[in-house]
Amino acid sequence: MCAARRKSRAYHPDRVRDALLAQVEHVRLAAHALTPEQLARPAALPGRDVHALLAHIAGQIDAVPRLLAQPAPAATRPALDLDDWAAHPGAGVGDAPEAAGDPVEAIDAAAEELDAVLETAVREDLLLPHRFGPMRGLDFTVTRVVELVVHSDDLTRSLQSPVRLDRGALAIAVRVLADALAAKAPGNSTELRVPPFVAVQCLPGPRHTRGTPPSVVEADPITWLRLATGRATWAQTTATGRLKAGGERALGLAGQLPVLG
C-alpha cells in the first residue's frame, strides 16, 4: 500500500500521454501488416498464438476507457502506486478482458476510444477503481505504457521482426521496472544501470557515498525489460553478454527477478 517509502518518480502527464499514444500507434500499424499465417503463429508467450496476443493487447489499450466509465471509488486517497502494481501477483494479466472477434479491429476500436478519453485519464487528482485498489489516473496510464512496451516486444519475439518502440514509452517502462526492483530489494550496495534511461541502487549492504559502487549490474533496455518481466533469465543474459554483473553482491539481484508480479 502507499505507506511511507522512498520518494516516487514523477511522470509528466503530457509525456505519458504522448508515449502511450505513440506506442499504441506502433502496435496498431504492426497488427495491420500481419498475414493470416502470422496471426496463427505460436506467440513467444506460452499457450498463446499471435491472434490471442493481439486480443490481449487490445484489452490492455481499452483498460483506460473501461475504468473511466466505471463509478469512481469511494476512497479519497490511492491505495495502489506503481511499485505496488508491479509487485502484485498477476499485475497486468487481469487488468482487462481479452477482446473478442478480429483482434486487429479490436485494437483499432480501443485506440479510438483511448484517444477520446486519455486527456481526462492522465491526472493525479483522479482515482480509478483498479481491481487491486484505488489508483491515480496518471499512475494507471503509466502502467498501460509498460504493458504496451512489454507486449510490443512480445510481438517482436513472436514474429522475429521488430515492432517499433517509442523512445519515450521505452524510457517509462524501463524506469518503472527499475524503481519496482529498488522498492522490492531496498538498499545501497548494488547499482542497476540501464543506460541511457536509469540507474537505481538496491540490496542491503555497505553504503557507498561517491564514485562507482562495489557491485554493479548493467543491461541494455530490452534485456532489462525481458529480465524484469520473466521473459529472459539471469543465466541466459549473462551468457550472451547482454547483462554485465560485477561485485560480490551483484548476483543477489538474480533472486529478485522477475520484478513484475
UniProtKB/TrEMBL annotation:
SUPFAM superfamilies linked: DinB/YfiT-like putative metalloenzymes
Stored NCBIfam families: maleylpyruvate isomerase family mycothiol-dependent enzyme
Protein name: Sterol carrier family protein
Ranges where the Mycothiol-dependent maleylpyruvate isomerase metal-binding domain occurs: 22-155
Domain of life assignment: Bacteria
Endpoints of the signal sequence: none
Domain Bacterial SCP orthologue positions: 166-259
